[in-house]
């Protein structure tokens, strides 16, 4: 059913419109970005009887939640309340219907991911992308929400109209304009926030800037625990020792292999403008009737995977993926080890890039990953046991709109991050500092994927940037971290590209948390409208009462 709706939306360049607004009548809430945060915010605004429009730059709602990330990263399930928990409860209801088990029976499904669904739970935490999309569409269908697809913000000076510190309207590249009382940037990139003139940053802060210890360059490959115990783990998302980086082994004059930077990684703890790696969270299947075998992409060049081959020739024995089972003999397949699905270092321009440049970066990531999977499955230089396993898998015929079975949503793990009057840092993650105006909880560890690939002092290739550090437990996210600085914009919420350091964001940046923050932002927007307040003048006690009434978990 959702494919039919999508086709109609593509033809009309709108979504399933639920309520008609007058030509120039402003919406109560204008949401730019149909990510999980945007969807949750739109549903909440509708339930509060607010007129709301949800504007999605692509043709599909849900972001990563409907784009392959079916293995929910949470840290602690009890931290998830409100519409987010309702979504996962609806996922469970979806799979209670026998007709939704086409490729295997419920009894055959073995949930082996990091967030297992325990017996007797009212929610389910693993799912197919198509199931997530169907659940979202069902939740939206019960509401009054205007949805417009394929509408990209005009990122020039014409894109945002402001007066007296308030956004009046936003204009798309198509020329369509949306007026509103309150606005929300729910994109992964922070395009509305940036175009509106809000302060933001890109990349890693130095440890010195906020008194942190796991920000900035991390070239020593340490695994970190809260107790301060450090254990060297060179194999943690890194190459095995002794992988030669040069085109001609042992000859620096021959030049570096692709995707290795010139020079060193920088001084440990120093900041830079680089962002952690992106990749596609692949939804794969080993069912022969639903599988599209991996194909060698046009323009495939073996040299781009020379480091992969050399890593195995140097002693690597493991499969370079986390292949978490999803229902119906499908997976959520993620990056693992030294050379995997992350296209390390090839996304640094993405946050500030034009739409056209971003499309090229996305396509480069897809082609890289296609070539990687073909190499793992069929290249004669790969160990036979690796080829035998990987070649059983392929993309799914029944998940995404593309004929090759690949999705369009790249995992934008980090792009722009707002800098507001309150910045979430490592100290919040560790419980050393506690926000007193919670709008949701985060609970996942501080997690950064690798950022660059370099040659170490021994003359071997290394990855840099991986951090996996514990958090004390669920911790509150500040309301002030999802609104701009005072004096910049007073009717904008930013629940995705919120105000956090690189490593603080590494803990917060999980899909259920984005849902929570989107819902809380919509509640704050509604109260602000009803009381004619700016986002900065909203009394927190009043907001807290409403958040709890809508089943948000704040402590």
Give your account of this protein's structure.
This protein has helices spanning 2-12, 36-47, 82-95, 129-141, 191-195, 207-210, 306-313, 355-378, 384-390, 426-429, 502-508, 511-530, 540-549, and strands spanning 27-32, 52-55, 146-148, 160-163, 166-171, 177-185, 200-202, 222-224, 230-232, 246-248, 251-256, 284-285, 291-293, 321-326, 330-335, 394-396, 416-418, 438-442, 446-448, 452-455, 461-464, 467-469, 475-478, 492-493. The model is unreliable at 1-23 and 222-235 (pLDDT under 50). The radius of gyration is 23 Å and the shape is globular. Strand 1, helix 2 (36-47) and strand 2 (52-55) form a beta-alpha-beta unit. Helix 3 (82-95) crosses helix 4 (129-141), helix 8 crosses helix 9 (384-390) and helix 12 (511-530) crosses helix 13 (540-549). With 555 residues, it is α+β, with helices and mostly antiparallel strands. Helices cover 25% and strands 18% of the residues. Strands 1, 2, 3, 4, 5, 6 and 24 form a seven-stranded mixed sheet that branches. The protein has three domains: 2-197 and 510-543, FAD/NAD(P)-binding domain (3-Layer(bba) Sandwich), CATH 3.50.50.60; 207-275 and 414-469, no CATH class; 284-396, no CATH class.
